[in-house]
Design brief:
By secondary structure, the protein is mainly alpha-helical. The protein is built from six helices and five strands, in the order αββαβαααββα. The strands form two sheets. A three-stranded antiparallel beta sheet has the order 3-5-4. It has a two-stranded antiparallel ribbon with strand order 1-2.
Length: about 190
Amino acid sequence: MKQNIFPAIRLTLVCIVVFMVIYPAIIWAVAKAAPSKGEGEAVTVNGKVVGYKLEGQSFTQDKYFNGRPSAAGYNAAGSSGSNKGPSNPDYLKDVQSRIDSFLVHNPTVKKEDIPSDLVTSSGSGLDPDISLKGATVQVDRIAKERNLPKEKIVALIQSNIEKSSMNGIEKINVLKINIELDKLKQ
C-alpha cells in the first residue's frame, strides 16, 4: 500500500505546485510583458475609456449598430454562453424574442434576412464583432435615426471591415464602428 500512496501524494504535490503556482506565474509574467500590461486593449474617446477592443458591450439605441447578444450580460468576469442547446425551449424563446425585437426596430428587414449572429449569443458571451451581413441589415434603421444617407453608412461599414486572422471571414467591431458613426456628419 505504501508503494502506491506515497508516489500518488508526491505527484499531487508536484501538480499543485506546477498548476497552481508556476503556470499562473508564467501566464501573469507574459501578460505583464504585453503592451497593455495584461489589462486589455482599452478604447478611448477624448481621453475617456469607452470600452475594450476585445470585449462586446450592449448598444440598445436605434442610432447605433447592435452587437451580438450576450448570455453573460456583457460581464467579462462571468464570461460564458448560455449552455442551452438549439432544441432547448428556453433558448428557442430567447432567440424568438430577439428576432421579434429586431423586427420591431428594423421594419424594413424580413425575418429570413436576419443573420444568426444578431439573435444568438456567442460561446463567451462577449463577442465584440458582428458579421458584415449583421452590419448591413441595420443600415436602414441607422440612416433613418441619424438622418444620414444610406450610402454614408454603407461606406462606413466598408471602411471598418476587418478580416479574421484564423479563417479570413469579414467582420465588424461594433464598438469601433459605433465610435466612427458618432463622428459622421450629414
